[in-house]
Specification:
- The protein is of the alpha+beta class.
- 34% of the residues lie in helices and 27% in strands.
- It has one domain: Fusion Protein Consisting Of Minor Coat Protein, Glycine Rich Linker, Tola, And A His Tag, Chain: A, Domain 2, CATH 3.30.1150.
- Strands 1, 3, 4, 6, 7 and 8 form a 6-stranded mixed beta sheet that branches. The chain has a two-stranded antiparallel sheet with strand order 2-5.
- A hairpin with a 5-residue loop joins strand 3 and strand 4.
- It comes from Sphingobacterium hotanense.
- This is Energy transducer TonB.
Length: 161
């Protein structure tokens, strides 16, 4: 009996402490990853015109640098960006590139598309939060054709759109 009461008090105390801590966190400045399984979104951030339209816009804005085309280099380029609490894309950064300006070209494409696409901000626990999304692009240049058509494609944007 004493063990049960002690266990109950210990559990209640931990739950209470956790509750107090979560109230002290200002979720308006919290940054979460779009695919974090530990975050339960009331609403996930999403482009107002739709994910396909945003992807299409980034893909059409992305220009493979001539140095990459001339080298015949292929590979994966990846960038991350934040969707802030106002639904605006900010802080676009290169996570992986194949060199010769390829990462910078993707950053420009995302930034340009971000100017044309407003997003619905994410909500966690009733508060708007910043969410980090990633976009991988695969550049596949074969030796026979070094034109830009069909050389890059945005495969997946991380997140639940």
């Amino acid at each position: 009996m004493k063990g049960s009461i002690l266990t109950y008090l210990l559990f209640f105390g931990l739950a209470f402490t956790h509750e107090v801590k979560s109230q002290e966190v200002d979720t308006s400045i919290m940054i979460v990853d779009a695919i974090d399984p530990n975050v339960i979104f009331d609403q996930q951030s999403a482009p107002l015109k739709g994910e396909k339209a945003f992807r299409r816009d980034v893909n059409s804005s992305f220009t493979i640098p001539k140095a990459v085309i001339n080298s015949g280099r292929s590979g994966k380029i990846e960038a991350a960006f934040l969707v802030d609490t106002a639904g605006v894309i900010t802080d676009v950064v290169i996570l992986q590139d194949i060199g010769s300006g390829s990462g910078e070209a993707l950053v420009r494409a995302i930034s340009n598309a971000g100017k044309r696409h407003k997003w619905v901000p994410a909500v966690v626990d009733g508060k708007k939060v910043k969410v980090r999304h990633t976009i991988p692009v695969t550049v596949n240049l074969n030796s026979q054709s070094r034109t830009q058509s069909n050389q890059s494609s945005i495969r997946n944007m991380s997140g639940n759109f």
